Amino acid sequence: MNIRRSIFCIPMFIALVNSAVIVNEGDVDQQGLYSKSDRVDILTNRNFERKIYGQKHALLVQFYNSYCGHCRSFAPRFKAMATEVTTWKNIIRLGVLDCSVEENNEICRQFEVMAYPSLRYLHEFYVKGNGNIGEKVHIADSPEKLKSNLITKMQSEQVSGRLITAPSLHIDSYSSYSAVFKSLPHDINYAFLVLENVNSTIGSELALDMNDYQHIRVVRVSETSELSNIANIKQFPAVIALSSTLEPILMYPKEPTKQSFLKAINSFLKSRNYVFPVRDQGSQEIITNENSDEYPATLNTDLVYYSDLEKTLKTSLHTEITRFKSLTGEPLQALLDYLDVLITSFPSRGNVKEYLMDLYTTLKTRKTWSGSEIYELVNNLETEHAPVYTTNNLEYIRCKGSQTKFRGYTCGLWTLFHTLTVNAAQKLDTTDGPKVLKAMHGYVKNFFGCTDCAMHFQAMAARNRIFDVKENDKAVLWLWIAHNEVNLRLAGDVTEDPVHPKIQFPSVSRCPECRLARGAWNLPAVYQYLQNVYGADNIQMMRRTITSAAASPFSNLDIGMLSLLYM
Ligand SMILES: Cc1cc2nc3c(=O)[nH]c(=O)nc-3n(C[C@H](O)[C@H](O)[C@H](O)COP(=O)(O)OP(=O)(O)OC[C@H]3O[C@@H](n4cnc5c(N)ncnc54)[C@H](O)[C@@H]3O)c2cc1C
Ligand SMILES: *[C@@H]1O[C@H](CO)[C@@H](O)[C@H](O)[C@H]1NC(C)=O
Fold first, then answer.
1. Which first-to-last residue range defines the signal peptide (predicted)?
2. Are 325 and 370 in contact (CB under 8 A)?
3. In angstroms, rounded to a whole number, what is the distance separating the alpha carbons of residues 157 and 167?
4. Pick from 86, 235, 391, 511: most CB atoms within 10 A?
């Protein structure tokens, strides 16, 4: 009997498993800054179309870059909002897409995402098509303000005839209680009248929060209505429970907030033995401290690895420069300038140089390129000149964070440009150093996916007169000073990796001779230290076995020489 049953069960079981796989095709549990437990839809290029187009509900999509500091500090706020609006899921859902993931790039290009993070509102039954890239929603600093921006957007959607299955977010003037009930369906037992200012979002938020309450409605009533006089209300917002038999009961929430209003309404309903909707509590997964066990706490060094430089270069060429819908004029020139300094000063091994030169000369042949054409070109040339990079799975070594949300690409970009200024300076008969600064300025301005970083950097460049730098060694020091200025600003910031605190570089312990009395810098020593770290001869081939000796970038001989020079 048992055996027969289990045999019978097998094909059904397989069928179930198969269909589950098909339904969730392309879904991932974790990507970039978000994971399954965050109550947002993690969008990827494999599930995007299925989750975005033709849906009954609207969507608020956040396009972000996992390495942008602003995106990292925004993530907790977005998650906080997502938790608060999970019950709105039949009306609107929140989605996130990481534009720093190469395979998602095409979508970010299609949606013309140029700033990170960007919020776009996509109405229900959205269709794929040219120019359908959603509508901008303002980013706000607090989850509350974010939510009120979203509600304002949803209100205007209803005015234009959309979101019709959602509760009404519209505010009206009423002259009597019966006028309110006349506007409602017959099966409503209680209406909660929220008397408020047109600009208040409390009523709308309550309506959305209670969207799945059966036989209940939230009705927004303008504070200037005749009804306010009838109810003798002097302070707004106020809330009145109105039964279908038109008996009004004025309620007294403790505070003029949504939470307080909702609490009052819920206790009122409870006292009336109301049956609340059953809600899915969601999975409360325990978030483990990722890769903390494999993270080598002893690897705390200034050493630069080829792997860091190559991974940064590859990311920049694969995902950053390909982001434009169309590239022409100043941005295209900025790209050429960037490639130019890479060709002259990147400490390349293998075929990187030939590859970059080919890319440069091909790009030069035309005045306009689309992002997808550049992406194709980059990939084709990479295959043609293979192997361009040392390994297929490049990893950050110097720039590895103690958790995936820290360090990475932005650290790589600093490392890359320091390396370029230092190596440009080693050629005595050229002024490639200032050219690197100019190229960096153009790159950051036009391509760096961290929007707030780019803005800060441009302001600093203007202040510190980046274009007035005329000598190679000044270029090296200019960038060192600029980076220290950023370190100072970001010290203690949420984006700071606790294992790699933002210090004034180099640290006292790494370079005692870099500092003079009373904290003044010894510039020749700093200059020498930068040569020792970023000079082509000192770039590390591969991961060293981690011993305490690896903590110093100098061999014993170097240290001896340094003390001779700077005693
Ligand atoms: C152009 C630019 C602008 C940025 N602006 C912002 C911003 O406005 N807001 C924001 O949140 N983040 C910004 N970032 C990111 C931020 O600076 C860090 O890259 C990020 O926080 C990761 O820090 P990190 O610990 O890896 O060290 P990073 O600051 O990325 O430094 C990488 C490595 O360089 C070395 N180093 C440090 N200081 C110096 C120096 N003065 N000279 C030479 N080498 C040094 C150290 O070994 C360090 O580990 C910006 C990044 C770039 C490239
Ligand atoms: C609502 O907000 C708008 C825009 O901020 C403002 O102009 C208007 O006066 C406000 N209305 C009321 C009634 O407060």
1. 1-19
2. yes
3. 12
4. 511
Q: Nearest-CA neighbor of 526 among 550, 540, 510, 539? A: 510
**Ligand 2 centroid to 199 CA: how many Å?**
6
Q: Name every residue whose Cβ is closer than 8 Å to that of residue 460 and which is 6 or more positions away in sequence.
A: 482, 485, 486
CA gap 79, 82 in Å, rounded: 5
Q: Which ligand is nearest the CA of 200, by number?
A: 2
Position 280 scores a pLDDT of: 65
**Residue 348: predicted pLDDT:** 80
Record the pTM. Answer: 0.69
What's the 221 CA to ligand 2 centre distance in angstroms?
16
The four Cα atoms 216, 222, 226, 231 give a dihedral, to 10 degrees, of: 50
Asked if pLDDT for residue 484 goes beyond 70, the answer is: yes
Sheet strand arrangement including 216-222: 171-172, 216-222, 190-196, 238-243, 248-250
Query: For 32-70, what is each residue's pLDDT tens digit?
Result: 999 988 999 999 999 999 999 999 999 999 999 998 888
3-state secondary structure of 298: coil
**Dihedrals φ, ψ of 299, to 5°?**
-80, 85
Return mean pLDDT, the chain: 87
Averaged pLDDT, 12-27: 50
Q: Is 444 in the pocket of ligand 1 (CB under 6 A)?
A: yes
| H-helix or E-strand spanning residue 534 | helix 523-534
DSSP states of 136-177: EE---SSHHHHHHHHHHHHHHHHHTT--TTSPP--EE--SSH
* Alpha helix (H) residue ranges in 193-345: 202-209, 226-230, 258-271, 306-315, 329-345
With CA atoms as reference, report the closest residue to 94 among 156, 154, 42, 146.
42
